Amino acid sequence: MDVRRLELLRELAERGSITEVARATHRTPSAVSQQLRVLEREAGLPLTEKAGRGIVLTDAGRALARSATDVAIALERADALWDEFRHDPTGEVSLATFPTGGQMLLPGVLHRLARQSGLTLHASDRDPVSEGFPDLANDFDIVLAHAPTRPPSLWHGRGLSVIHLITEPLDVALAPGHPLAAQASVSPADLIGEQWIGVPWGYPFERTLYDISAAAGAPVDIVQRFADTRVTESLVAAGLGIAILPRYTAGGAYLDSSTASQRIVLKPLSGMRAERHIYALMRPDRAERLAVRTVAEFLRAEAEAIRAANPAPA
Q1: How far, in Å, CA of 194 to CA of 180, rounded?
Q2: What domain range includes position 236?
Q3: Is the peptide bond before 99 cis (omega within 30 degrees of 0)?
Q4: In what residue span(s) does the HTH lysR-type domain sit (predicted)?
Q5: Pick from 278, 289, 59, 271: nearest CA to 164
Q6: What is the pLDDT of residues 260-298, one digit of tens each?
Q7: Quick one: 198 and 62 in the same domain?
Q8: pLDDT digits over 107-159, tens only?
Q9: Does any domain span residue 100?
Q10: How far apart are CA 124 and CA 19, in angstroms?
Q11: Strand 195-198 with 221-225, pairing
Q12: pTM above 0.85, yes or no
């Protein structure tokens, strides 16, 4: 069987439609369909079947798609082994990151890459809900993802290589003049009656708000919802509500440049766990590429440097 046609079958298993495979592989849908029909003749079994207005893989098709993944991994592993012999992790690597993950990790990673000749990283910002991150791995070599659990159950079964990079505490953000700003920490009971700047439905920080509500025995009053933490920060600074924000990407970002005063104050939550877990997700064949492995190692090293610079409170 032709390896390129096997890869098309694998893409169909991952993406779910001929149209999406055509888009991803820069072919026409008719060209993809034709290649899959040739693969069926080579296999001697039906690999797809009609389902409504589209098609789905048969049992044989799903089994062959899994084999196509094994073939892709073996080919990338062979290329990586040759690159290791040549000590040559060159090439281009694409990376998708949620905004605060890029804010935290990308500057240090790009500085490390600047010392590695022949290796280029192309990064883009993306911010889906938790279950959407694995889909990005179809189009990017590495996906920086975050979730409230370790690892999320929604990511199981996708066959991805998953690297846990760092656990980041989530703090309560307050205006400097807020009555709770003088406390060393705040408890869920302290937060009863507060107005909250929340996140869109399904975003990881939402779970922390539910946990606060459950621990306090009272509902949280969410008056606004934003995906962009910069908007949230500005509303908190204006005294229009409080919020949950990630600790490592908060810090020095909240100094007013004109007065050098704090715009917001971050306080840890007491009596409950509030954190997010940050991962690198990769399709297993791409994870074998030496260039991709090198970038993944730089991500690990940068995450370790951030952990060392932000030790847990005693």
Answers
A1: 11
A2: 168-274
A3: no
A4: 1-58
A5: 278
A6: 456 899 999 999 999 999 999 999 989 988 899 999 999
A7: no
A8: 999 999 998 888 899 999 998 877 889 999 989 999 999 988 777 777 877 88
A9: yes
A10: 23
A11: parallel
A12: no
